[in-house]
Write the C-alpha cells for this entry.
Amino acid sequence: MNYDALFSSVGQGLQQSAIRQMGTVAAQNPNLISLAPGYPDPGTFAWDAYLEITEALLTQRGRATLQYGPTQGHPPLVAACVDLLRERGIAATPQELLITTGSQQGLDLVARVLLDPGDVVLVELPSYTGAIAAFKNVQASLVGIPQQADGIDLEALDDTYRRLAHDGRRVKFLYLVPNFQNPTGLLVSLAKRRALLEWASRRDVLLVEDDPYGALYFEDTTTAAETRPIKADDTGQRVIYLTSFSKTLSPAFRTAIMVAPPALADRFEIGKQAADLCTSNFDQAIVLEAINRGVLARQLPLLRQHYQRNRTVMESALRASLGEAATWVTPRGGFFLWVSLPDAVDTHRMIARAVAQGVIYVAGGAFFVDGTGANTLRLSFSLATPEKIVEGVTRVAAAVKEELAALGAAALVGR
Ligand SMILES: Cc1ncc(COP(=O)(O)O)c(C=O)c1O
C-alpha cells in the first residue's frame, strides 16, 4: 500500500525533533557522553518519598486514584496549584486552571485552539523546538524576533508587528520563555517583562509564557524576585501561563499547569477532552501528595544547588578548553548553556566530528525559525555527572578545534 498518499498535509510535514534525533544517536552509542537532552538528573528524584506515596495511594485503594478524572484536573491538585501559583505572585481562580499532560500538551492546545493555517505566531530567535513543532503542526506562520542580553528585542518586536499588520497579517500571540530559556538560558529583565505586557495590551496580542525553569534559579547570582512571572502582573488578562512539574519532581508524572483567561481556559479544556480525556489521575495524586508532604518544597533548594554546581563545572571546563573560540552568557538558572562559535562553523555539520570524539550536543539551527544560528550549539548541564561534563566539554572543544583547523583562517573572519 502506498502509505504516503494517506498522509494529511500536516502528517506529511511532520519532522523528527533535532533533540530527539540526538537521543537516538546516544542510545546507539553507549560510550557517547550526551550533553544534548534537557532531562533532569534522575539522581535528584525523591525516590523514597515516591515509594511511600505510591504505596500509600495503592493500599488505600481510593477509587479516584486509578479512575478517569475530570478533564480540568484532579480537584484537590487544582486547589493545591492555586496556592503554588499564589506563591509565584499569580492570583488565579480554579476556573482559570487546567492540569495538562506536560506543558507540551499546553502548547499543543494553544496551537489547536487558537491558530488557523497562516496565522502569525511571534517567537524568539532562538526558541524552544517543542513549541515551534506544536505551532508548525497547525500550519501557523512563525516569525522570529532577535534577543538581547536581557531578553527579546522590544524595538524589533514592534517593528515586526507593524510590518506584519501593514501586510494585513494577524498576529495571534508572542511565545516566550522568560526564565532561563530553552535553549539560551537567558533571563528576561523585570523592566522588559513590564514592557512586554504593555506592548501586548497596546497591540492587542496575547502572550504565551512558558515557565518550566523559573524555580531553578541559581542563588549565587539570582533571586526569586527576578523570576517573577509576567502572568503575575497580568491585570488585563493577556497572558496564557504554562508551568510544569517535569523539571522539579519528575517528567514521568506528565503533570503541568496551564493558566488562561476563563473564556480561553474553557475552550482549552474541551480541546483536551478530545486529546486525552484527562491527565492520569494516578500521576496527579502522586504530585498532590508530593506537594502536601513537603517533597516539592524540600527538593527546590537542593535542585538549585545541584544544577548551579553543574553549570559552574561546565562553564569552567568551557573556559579552560574553548575560551578563545567560543562565547556564551553565564546561565543564572535552568539546564542549558548556549555557545556561539565563529560564523564559519556549522555546528550541524560538526556533529560527525563530535560523535567521533564521543560526545553529542544539539546544533543550534534547530531553534531558529529563520534558518540562521548555524554557528550555535546547546549544551545541557542537567543530566551528566560533573566528571562527564568536564570530559564531554573537552571532547566538544576537540571537535571545534578540528573544525576550525579544517576551515582554516577563514573561520575567524567575522568574530
Ligand atoms: C521551554 C519548555 N517548554 C515546555 C517543555 C515541555 O515540558 P513537559 O511537557 O515535560 O512539561 C520543555 C521541556 O523540555 C521546555 O524546555
User: Anything to note?
Assistant: The domain at 47-295 is CATH 3.40.640.10 (Aspartate Aminotransferase; domain 2).
